[in-house]
Amino acid sequence: MTVAIGMGQTEAGAAATLDLEELLATRLLVQGNSGSGKSHLLRRLLEQSAPWVQQTVIDPEGDFVTLAERFGHLVIDAEAHTEYALQVAGERARIHRVSTVLDLEGLDAENQLRRAAAFLGGMFEVDRDHWYPMLVVVDEAQLFAPAVAGEISDEARKLSLGAMTNLMCRGRKRGLAGVIATQRLAKLAKNVAAEASNFLMGRTFLDIDMARAADLLGMERRQADAFRDLGRGHFVALGPALSRRPLGIRIGPTETRPRNAPSRLMPLPEAPLEDAHAVILAAPPPEAARPQRRPPAPPAPDLLSQLMAAARPPAEETRAETVEDPPSPEALAERRERQEQILRAILADPDAGFRAVGVLYQDFLVRWRIEGLGAGVPDLGGFRRMLTRARAGISAEMAEDEAWQDVAARAAILPEDMQGIFLMLARAAREGQPCPGDPAIARAYGTHSLGRARRVLNYIEEQGLIVCQMDGAGRRIVTLVELAWATAPGAPDAEDALAG
């Protein structure tokens, strides 16, 4: 069965349709400068397809929350939930086939990326039994899959970019059809944009974006100037779900309206304000009397907290529990060993070194619950420190040694993603093992680039922590400054990492 979604009219006045089943298999990219009608196009697509397919909208500006009243979408206020709660919500929405709008308005850029990544990750990692067809619409996709690093932290960018890459590159087999809209193609990560097979290109003025849009549509460069002349709501369509040749279309009307309607001209008051100087420049009120910004709602408890609360005994029993003896040293040792087993199992995956810390932390939480370790789960910061230590091959027992605590203190002056490299070098030096090769350093750093691995070593040396030198056979020796620990000579191209 073919489901044709009415998108509007062609320039010739014929009906412009979109093949929904084809779209689910091939994904869609929408591009246009601010004011070109991208959000209107997405709203039309969502309204027309709502009866046929489950939907979710990643909404950075809160424009699509009005879909809830007319079409029954569940609006999720991302500001009121933790990242883990949003991951679970993404899983449940997929399982129960509920259309949702993730409202990110009110969050700063970093938290928008983190929460969107958590929600998308929950939908992506759901069990195979729940891989139902689903439209995933991401407005302002250049925010969530930026082509270059910006002011946000590198970790948040990697989390969000990884989630968007999974959506566009691997989502099809899981039933997820990505529909992404961006103001500028030049700001959108190429590996995300390249996975779309359908395109709707709107008004664009910058030469670099017009040239890239023309390339995607198979048009000649001299035809790219046509994108400047497109009116609001007019797009050039191409793709198996739209048209086999570039086709100009005009998007039709929508049933709902955005919550944040565009500003319209409004005449100034006819009567001028009397004594404007006194009114505008009057002394400000005392700080205490100024209206305060509404504090954010407290975060919803995560799934682990809910499960623990449901299993909590009555108040009398709870009070009795508080006076129980603390865990014995044997119990603490067993708990630590099981925690180490979880870390080793995570790092045994060959791709673990190239995954974002947030993704590994989610895996850690699941394994923690499976092991039945209960409360006391480390937070993300604690997990990051454990992961850094484990990647260097240093056990929890070794880390308690005074010498290793000194090494960790020295490593603290480095960026977090380099501290594990320093610990790995320190372990090799203390145990007299060969210096790790560039491939092992690259894996520990989370990259495939050997050049980047060498630059990391150079940076650590510039900070005065190590000294690198070559012996007569071209093998590398690393000496830790002040500690006078030195590795055995090791070939820079050696593949093997340290023994566990």
Question: Overall 3D geometry?
Answer: elongated
- Specify the CATH homologous superfamily of the largest domain: P-loop containing nucleotide triphosphate hydrolases
Would you tell me the structural class of the helices and strands? alpha/beta
**Termini separation (Å)?**
56 Å
Explain what this protein looks like in three dimensions:
This is ATP-binding protein. Residues 5-72 form the Helicase HerA central domain. Keywords: ATP-binding, Nucleotide-binding. Residues 311-337 are annotated as: Disordered. There is one protein chain. This protein has 500 residues and is of the alpha/beta class. The protein folds into three domains: 4-251, P-loop containing nucleotide triphosphate hydrolases (Rossmann fold), CATH 3.40.50.300; 329-383; 392-500, Arc Repressor Mutant, subunit A (Orthogonal Bundle). Helices cover 41% and strands 14% of the residues. The protein has 20 helices and 13 strands. The protein has an eleven-stranded mixed sheet. Helix 13 crosses helix 14 (357-371), helix 13 (329-347) packs across helix 15 (380-391) and helix 15 (380-391) runs parallel beside helix 18 (416-431). The protein starts with a strand and ends in a 20-residue tail after the last strand.
